[in-house]
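Re-run with default settings, no changes from the original entry. Doing this only to confirm the output is reproducible before filing.
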Amino acid sequence: QVSELVQFLLVKDQKKIPIKRADMLKSVIREYRDTYSEIVNKAAKTLQEVFGLQMVEIDTKRHIYILINNLRRAESEHLCKDKEKAKMGLLMVILSFIFMKGNSVKDSAVWEFLHRLRVYPGKHHKVFGDVRKLVTEEFVRQKYLEITPIPLTDPPEFKYQWGPRAAKETSKKDVLNFVAKIQGKNPTFWTSQYSQAEATP
């Protein structure tokens, strides 16, 4: 739940929308409402440590939160840089999903996963624009992702794998550490992924 909440908050923060406690309960925490404050505290700690973001309650009556950036942004960083950063964040989330699922994932699983993060294909996203285009065209063109048709599927299905650039710019180790930080676990928790990460330079 903590990792889902962290990702939910990051996506919300891209739009700079204040986050309501009710939304967190409804979208992420659901049946775990008894441990609500524990989950939120852990998520806040992760946001602070991993992303340098501080979760601040701006309305204590209605429980509304915002994320503020601790690392003072250099004035020269314009929105386009932030947009690029956000895209890279989304890419990192997709790459870690593919790796954790065994290095190859069906397209339906990718979209279902993004759906849970409130990022919808075919719906214009304020930061990412056309999400389907970004994932299936831009990330593929940039060689971060490889999408190949699965033979003999009707309707046609595709599998997603890391592209050559992803393997150069990041590593399985980095991705596993990213997931471990978000989930608050030790990378060795995932034995097969850990041994893969250790085996690849």
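Residues 79-100 form the longest helix (22 residues). The chain has nine helices and eight strands.
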